[in-house]
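Here is one such protein, fold included:

. . .
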Amino acid sequence: MKRIGIVGGGQLGRMLSFEAKRMGFEVVILDPTSHSPASQVSDFQIVSRYDDLSKIDEFIGLCDVITYEFEHISVEFLREIEKRGGEVIPSSNTLQIIQNKLKQKLFLKEKGFNVPKIYKKDEIDKIDSFPCMLKFSRGGYDGKGNILIESASHLKSIVSNIKDEFFIEELIDFEKEISILVARNKRGEVKHFSPVENIHKNRILHISISPARIDKKTEDKIYEIADRFIETIGDFGIYCIEMFLDKKGRVYINEIAPRPHNSGHHTIESCITSQFEQHIRSILNLPLGSTRVISKAVMRNILGDKDIEGDYYLKNIEELLNIEGLFLHLYGKKDVKRGRKMGHITYLCDDLEEGIKRLSNMEFEFIGGC
């Protein structure tokens, strides 16, 4: 029986574990928090920081292949796993390119992909168009690490207090935010999912709509970008490519995630093969699954509405479970925090507009206690 190691014990690791266990594989989680969401549904957990080498041999010894559920881990840690004979997919070299957003953008630009215009720290005097976006090279997610810059004077006041590496990016006047998942295995198989349309609220993904409401020409352009990227990166596993579609029909790559992605959660119910199963298939070099769409779908994140320490429950769970075609996923996190992703719902529907309206109007409340 193959045993899969996952660095990171959050909700993505949890959903990867669900699929791996369903397929008959064992799962080992490495995460600094005991009883993490992923470890609750896995076989083993090693409680360790992501840069602690003292547990690395134990982790390698338990696993046939190792992957990771998020990017903000030590590249050196993954590289040490590889040096000691462990297999990491995607590799540490891939993470090194993608983890640093400036390096990622420069890599994509060098390879001929269309990205927003960027200015490095020593080029900010050349900026002649505002507003623009300041992005930190490391550590940002869910809108964190981005600052909207309104003017040259605003930029000057902001950068005077920044010590971390950053860059400035052209602000795209986009019509839609689109993402696509694409996977590759060592057999050379490549499969992508249908593009998804994403709506953000307070810089956090709010709703994903599958399939994206775009024309055939744009859809084909997105497929071409996805296929070209997976060949360019030369690695394996599943990748999410986030894109901007501007009002002139131009497509820009915004960011790459070398893992399953929030915008792909709908695939658990809406596609023949979920993004999580596809990643498992890819890293184990199994045949890639069909990505055929079973149903149109709308996914919405469930965020914490307040801070609660200890036991809690979702107030309107019975109301949700009475809706035909709606699937509820809660992540088993120890505490509720305002704005934290606590779960998601996926609604399979015939009419996307009805699905968007229904999920957009929902309110979620967490209550402390059992």
